[in-house]
Amino acid sequence: MSESQPYQWPGDPAVREKLDWWRDQKFGVIIHWGPYSQWGVFESWTLCQEPDPWCERPAAWADDPVGYRAAYERLPQTFAAPAFDPSAWAAACAGAGMKYVVFTTKHHDGFAMYDTALEEYKVTNTPLGRDVTREVLDAFREHGLAAGVYFSKADWHSPDYWRQDRLAPDRHADYDPSEQPERWQRFKQFTHAQISELLSGYGPIDVLWLDAGWVRAPREDLDMPALAAQARRLQPGILVVDREVHGPQEDYRTPEQQIPDLPQPYPWESCVTLGPMWYTAAPGEEYKPVREVVHMLCRIVARGGNLLLGLGPDHTGALPDAVLDRLAGIGAWLDAHGEAVYGTRPVAPYEADGWLFTARDNVTYAVGLLKEGEKLPESVRIPVSGQRPDVVRLVGADETVAWEWEDGEVVVRLPGTRAEHAFVVALVNES
């Protein structure tokens, strides 16, 4: 469907209230993890026979897709993850200033990272033997983050989606559901039941983040209205994100690995990875520096969105030191400047003359991005779309600033305060 299709605002008052709350959070984390981490492959995608780079199999199986599938499905037998410590993950993400988590409970391969009663292909049947989803969600709630669950609508392990005795040609169901309605009905009931398990047995859930946007009506119809209604009976007010399927079950939109160029007339969240993949695939990976993530967050917030930063542990269950260092650096910046991020909305002129603008109540925040090694300038000019401010201050600094009003601009003389990544000037209207 076209991105131009109008967004449909939720009619349920509880959902609208939750959506307003969610738009205030601004910064979340999405965590991918599973037995595939033992091989460092591109999550489930290497099971798919499409000619895309992320579907490429490791060299040993390049010409043996059948053998690869069989070996992949044996990965749970060796999934032990001795360093799995969800409290450590949660502490690091809370320290980074993240406000909610979306955890991958089931990716396209159909492996359940929770103790489903409907399938034996699950994490509690591995050497790890723990209900990872329960432990992760509990740990993040204990550290003050809201809980969301990622769930793939596709299931390449289910015989009612892909037959197990032959390879499917692509990511879709390997049959026409209109020609085998009983088979599709079994799959639909199975999917609804698994989601109901997650929403009835894992505590308060704020977001149901549904992936695999190709599973949609008319061909692969999961009866999303019924699924969403059941979700809200189990978790009143829950946000349902049927991502990439624009309509009444997409409470907010989710551009992946990109940021819209302009403010959007609907709620949205950019999901962007910290490293090259959605989890830690191998030692020595390159990760975005703290400055890049801070700048990205500021641009997203100035355009009215949230940032969902993608990361994950390695096969041992640990977050690498490089990830922890970056989370700490992001958190340090937000500790000093978070008032310009959390609970704000975009405000005119949005982005102008090198500034990004956000607002909350009677305060407009002008965010100036700094290059590596760049110091605060001695003075700056800030364009103002409105009346002259009453108070001007440098956020995160104790020093006062001298300022003047000149032809619709605030001219600020900045102190010699050291700043990293970005600085924020607050323009306050007291009347």
Rough shape?
Answer: globular
How many separate helices? 8
Structural class: alpha/beta
- The fraction of residues assigned to DSSP E strands is 15-25%
Note the run of SSEs as H and E.
HEHHEHEHEHEEHEHEEEEEEEE
Distance between the termini: 46 Å
Give a short summary of the structure.
With 431 residues, the protein is of the alpha/beta class. The protein has helices spanning 13-25, 65-72, 86-95, 132-142, 181-201, 224-234, 290-302, 321-337, and strands at 27-31, 100-106, 146-152, 207-211, 239-242, 269-273, 306-311, 345-352, 355-360, 363-369, 379-383, 391-394, 402-406, 409-413, 422-428.
Essential attributes:
five-stranded antiparallel β-sheet, seven-stranded parallel β-sheet, 15 strands, 8 helices, 431 residues, alpha/beta
Give a description of the structure.
By secondary structure, this protein is of the alpha/beta class. Helix content is 24%, strand content 20%. The strands form 3 sheets. Strands 5-4-3-2-1-7-6 form a 7-stranded parallel sheet, sandwiched between helices. A hairpin with a 2-residue loop joins strand 13 and strand 14. It starts with 12 loop residues before the first helix and ends with a strand.
Break the fold down into its secondary structure elements and pairings.
Blueprint: H1 13-25, E1 27-31, H2 65-72, H3 86-95, E2 100-106, H4 132-142, E3 146-152, H5 181-201, E4 207-211, H6 224-234, E5 239-242, E6 269-273, H7 290-302, E7 306-311, H8 321-337, E8 345-352, E9 355-360, E10 363-369, E11 379-383, E12 391-394, E13 402-406, E14 409-413, E15 422-428
Parallel strand pairs: 1-2, 1-7, 2-3, 3-4, 4-5, 6-7
Antiparallel strand pairs: 8-9, 9-10, 10-15, 11-14, 12-15, 13-14
